[in-house]
Amino acid sequence: MHDFGGEALASLSTEDVDFIKALPKAELHAHLNGCIPLECLQELVNQHPEITSGSDGAVAKGLKILEQGVVLNEINEFFDLFPAIYAITSTPDALKKATRATIAQFLEPGSLGAGEPAQCTYLELRTTPRESSFMSKREYLETVLDEVEKYDKDKCNLIISLDRRMSPVVVGVDLCGTPMAGKADDFLAAFEYARENGLKLTLHIAETKENTEEDTMTLLSAKPARLGHATFLHEESLSVVLNHKETMAVEICLSSNLLCKTVETIAEHHISWWLSNGLPIAICTDDTLVFRNSLVEEYALLLAAPPLGLGLPRETVAQMARMSLQVGFHQ
Ligand code: 6MZ
Questions:
Q1: Ligand 1 center to 74 CA (angstroms)
Q2: Would you say the CB of residue 203 lies under 6 angstroms from ligand 1?
Q3: H or E element that contains 282
Q4: Ligand 1 neighbour 140 (Cβ under 6 A)
Q5: Considering only Cβ atoms within 10 Å of each terminal Cβ, which end of the chain, N or C, has fewer?
Q6: What's the whole-model pTM score?
């Protein structure tokens, strides 16, 4: 698996690495089931061998792919990994452990190695309430919330994701899942309800070439405060976003886009366009379990010289870290 961020990080001086690590920053786009530390997932499988044996080998196969490092030919292959992960986190106990380990991975010092500082100062974790034979959606949510609430509100909060593959339920504020599934229209009422009740919206939008401008414009009509990826915006949607610079920000997940092959090279990444047009940006990881990345590595991609990174000056990188904190929903 290509380690975009790791290579960028390795190319930096010790001073630059320390600079990135010390920057106070926010992680705003991290999917719970996509960010479970691999060792935690392995431990859960060892503790519950019945999960692996009862799944016709699908869980064992999924775990093996994650252990070896994922190579994706296109973005849809990414979504095929989740049934295996979901089988492993299908009980309240396993979900609790996975949530605890995932939050710790971002917020606790030492989680990326002895003596290493915490990856970020503020975390907005997102997840899709999911029922299984062992728990209801409510239990799922309560289990995750129990862990999130162990932290102060200015440290860790939860975003509830709506999955495009599921029927709309009025619970929350992120739209995610296979980008071509479902119809954006079906979610508008839920989005409006969420907004009316004081929740802000973050929507995965225009993530693939196949997403139509119509789909994108429908999602923008819901007035999201943040956009996930926003890779393939066209003329009309671009101008809507640019006209809302004061109230909209884009969550940028560099390694995710490169590994899912929705963006070919870092030099061509749309982040440069957003930067030169002054739209607030938050650098995020997306799914650290699958992409084997970290927030520090994502920032290394900003600082490292081309072709490994974008070669941005420290001043800009520090400004982006500040921006990530400013566009958090805790403000
Ligand atoms: C769209 C994504 C995603 O919610 O079960 N997910 N949806 N685009 C992406 N970019 C590559 N990365 C993750 O976390 C896993 C779920 O998050 C969504 C998918 O629906 C995936 O099943 P939770 O905690």
A1: 15
A2: no
A3: strand 281-283
A4: no
A5: C
A6: 0.82
- Spell out a b/e string for 177-214, using b for 16 or more CB atoms within 10 Å of the CB, else e: bbbeebebeebeebbeebbeeebbbbbbbbbbeebeee
Mutational test site, ligand 1, from 176, 251, 259, max ligand atoms within 8 Å of CB:
176
State the distance from the centre of ligand 1 to the C-alpha of 31, rounded, in angstroms: 6
265 Cα to the center of ligand 1, angstroms: 22
Question: Is the CB of residue 19 less than 8 Å from the CB of residue 113?
Answer: no
- Which residue is listed with tokens 């390694």? 255
State the pLDDT at residue 167.
56
Reading the block at residue 122, the tokens are: 């503020």
Can you tell me which atom of ligand 1 is nearest the CA of 32? 24
Which ligand 1 atom sits nearest the alpha carbon of residue 78?
11
What ipTM goes with this model? 0.94
The pairs formed by 149-155 with CB atoms below 8 angstroms and a separation of 24 or more are: 150/103, 151/103, 151/107, 151/123, 153/330, 154/122, 154/330, 155/107, 155/121, 155/122, 155/123
Q: Which CATH superfamily is domain 4-35+118-327 in?
A: Metal-dependent hydrolases (3.20.20.140)
Q: How far is the CA of 128 from the centre of ligand 1 (A)?
A: 8
* CA–centroid distance, residue 34 to ligand 1 (Å): 7
Cα distance between residue 93 and residue 90, in whole Å: 9
Give the model confidence (pLDDT) of 243-294 as tens digits: 999 999 999 999 999 999 999 999 999 999 999 999 999 999 999 999 999 9
Ligand 1 proximity of 33 Cβ (cutoff 6 Å): yes
| Extents of the domains making up the chain | 4-35+118-327
Q: Which residue ranges in the chain fall short of pLDDT 70? A: 54-55, 164-172, 331
